[in-house]
Design a protein that fits this description.
The protein is α/β, with parallel strands linked by helices. It has nine helices and 30 strands. The protein is 19% helix and 36% strand. The strands form seven sheets. The chain has an eight-stranded parallel beta barrel with strand order 21-22-23-24-25-26-27-28, surrounded by four helices. Bound molecules: alpha-D-galactopyranuronic acid (ADA). Alpha-D-galactopyranuronic acid binds next to loops.
Length: 555
């Protein structure tokens, strides 16, 4: 399954799922796609390049479009042994369009590299695991030489009525100019335009309509609509694209985040895409189960720590009214790591792809960057500035933030719309949570972050599933429950806070190449409220009880 709805009725699209041939180091076997190579007996801790391949059959001479939703972490794709695209980063989609492909059998090869090589600035040994493989769905399509490249929808309110700006890009792969007609339907409104697309070019067409019958999207009532674009040549439909959208406006009102003018309180979890037996290639069933468990605890938000997530997960959040803080791929990078020659480009590529590919999801309410990177240094500040500016240049409709761990020393709080703090009082350092919190809030008031909404973006404690100890000592489920409860009581009572994200939803695997993380029991980050197999720890009930108690009070 590619998305939770059909994106095409006219375009021929088939999924590249199933068993692919895997060749590496003289071994040949087969691996399921989507899937992680680590699920194979000979590749459980493999780091390096593998070659994945399979055949496809093209019914009639056409242009072929390949799209990979996620290959971890670097992909080099060949079509009939010709290189067609290269992509870095496991967490954003990429495509290749190949013109004039003859009917018949063709071969797709993908060199996949998950090594921590010198080219990689973002996939490095870290407190999560970089798996290997085609970890998310992939498709191949037979498209018209003139086709719809993308559809972006931006809702906005005007004089109490919903309006929407629909931007559509049409690409002409052919050598002659092409007269086309474009019809767009949304929420019982249809618009069309007729135009000409020059050879070898992309043309952008913008519709801007009012939608009097549109119901607002909100966490309580997540109404969704299909924007359906059809491209015709000589009155013959040749391509289409369907996107699912929602009518809602995000804003900041004083210290509160608002949706459609209503203040919201984010009761959330940080969630890695990682599951005990299958790594980062979660199928829809397990994504849905994760959201079921988070909602059972009373959560209404999730942070995609620390990278853009699978679109099917975002589709589920759209349908369930789960608010999403999505962020670019970065975790805990020092200024030396931020000075890696590829860092800026790899971050900016990730931001551009994340926003281009995910901006239509109404559930995404915040764009985040650079979790716990060098925001306490002038050198780091310049890089933060560039990334915030890039986001605002691409999408002004969502607030920005970045989770900092530079308590009392962060020098970037003037940039984001929301101040976000990762704080591990009670786990990494002593103090009473409320005392530390007051010190932190006073410090913020002395910075340019004063008066901005504040999110406590991480707090929590480790616990080994099944380890119970009446002394409530460290690593027991009881201690984790106590620490999370103390944090929640402090933050849920504080109306200067507009949201909390518990670290973390589920235990996740970490890399052994870094001693600090490898020191973690089981080589996992054990701060999950459930373990890597989604077995609940004692804190599951504690969170459920406290989220429920405060939800009744509008928190
Ligand atoms: C940091 C980081 C998380 C995780 C956490 C921890 O806040 O943002 O990814 O590593 O620490 O468990 O220590």
């Amino acid at each position: 399954m590619i998305r939770l709805f059909d994106q095409h009725r006219i375009r021929s699209q088939r999924e590249l799922d199933g068993m692919w041939r895997l060749e590496a180091e003289g071994k040949v076997c087969s691996v399921p796609v989507p899937g992680c190579i680590e699920q194979l007996p000979d590749f459980r801790s493999y780091r390096g390049r593998v070659l994945l391949s399979r055949k496809i059959y093209i019914k009639k001479k056409s242009c072929v479009r390949l799209e990979f939703k996620g290959v971890s972490h670097t992909a080099e794709v060949l079509f009939d042994d010709l290189p067609v695209v290269r992509h870095y980063n496991a967490y954003t989609a990429f495509e290749a369009v190949i013109a004039d492909v003859d009917a018949g059998e063709h071969e797709i090869k993908v060199w996949v590299d998950n090594s921590f090589n010198e080219e990689s600035a973002l996939h490095i040994p870290n407190d999560y695991y970089t798996y290997g493989g085609i970890i998310r769905p992939a498709v191949y399509e037979e498209i018209s030489p003139v086709y719809i490249k993308r559809l972006h929808f931006t809702p906005y309110r005007e004089k109490g009525v919903w309006r929407g700006r629909t931007e559509i890009e049409i690409e002409n792969l052919g050598q002659s100019s092409m007269p086309v007609r474009l019809d767009v339907s949304l929420c019982r409104k249809t618009s069309f335009c007729e135009t000409e697309v020059e050879p070898y070019s992309v043309k952008r067409i913008v519709f801007d309509d009012s939608y009097e019958e549109a119901e607002s999207w909100s966490p309580e009532s997540p109404s969704l609509y299909f924007a359906d674009a059809v491209l015709s040549i000589n009155s013959q439909p040749v391509d289409d694209m369907i996107e699912r959208v929602g009518f809602r406006e995000i804003a900041i009102d004083g210290r509160r985040l608002t949706i459609n003018g209503q203040p919201v309180f984010l009761r959330g979890f940080n969630r890695h895409e990682d599951y005990g037996t299958i790594g980062s290639a979660l199928p829809l069933q397990l994504m849905a189960q994760d959201i079921d468990l988070m909602q059972e605890m009373g959560a209404n938000a999730v942070r995609t720590s620390h990278y853009p997530n699978d679109e099917r997960f975002l589709d589920l959040c759209d349908e369930r009214g789960i608010m999403v803080w999505e962020e670019n791929h970065a975790r805990g990078l020092s200024i030396e790591q931020m000075n890696h020659p590829n860092f800026e480009r790899q971050c900016e590529d990730c931001i551009a792809e994340m926003i281009d590919q995910h901006r239509n999801h109404p559930a995404i309410v915040i764009w985040g960057i650079l979790n716990e990177c060098a925001s306490h240094l002038e050198e780091g500040r310049a890089k933060y500035m560039r990334q915030y500016e890039q986001i605002k240049g691409l999408d002004k409709t969502r607030p920005t933030t970045s989770a900092t761990c530079h308590h009392f020393s962060d020098i970037c709080l003037d940039m984001p719309d929301i101040v976000s703090l990762n704080t591990y009082t009670g786990w990494y350092w002593g103090d009473a949570v409320d005392e530390w919190h007051e010190k932190e809030m006073s410090w913020i008031d002395s910075t340019p972050g004063a008066g901005k909404p504040v999110i406590i973006s991480e707090f929590g404690a480790g616990a080994i599933y099944g380890y119970r100890d009446r002394s409530r000592c460290k690593w027991s489920e009881e201690r984790q429950s106590d620490i999370i409860a103390e944090h929640l009581r402090t933050y849920l009572e504080d109306d200067r806070i507009t949201g909390v994200f518990i670290w973390q939803f589920a235990d996740c695997k970490v890399t052994e190449e870094n001693n600090w993380f490898a020191g973690r029991a089981k080589c996992h980050n054990n701060k999950g409220v459930v373990d890597e197999y989604r077995r609940p720890k004692e804190s599951f009930e504690t969170v459920k009880e406290l989220f429920a108690a405060y939800a009744q009070r509008g928190r």
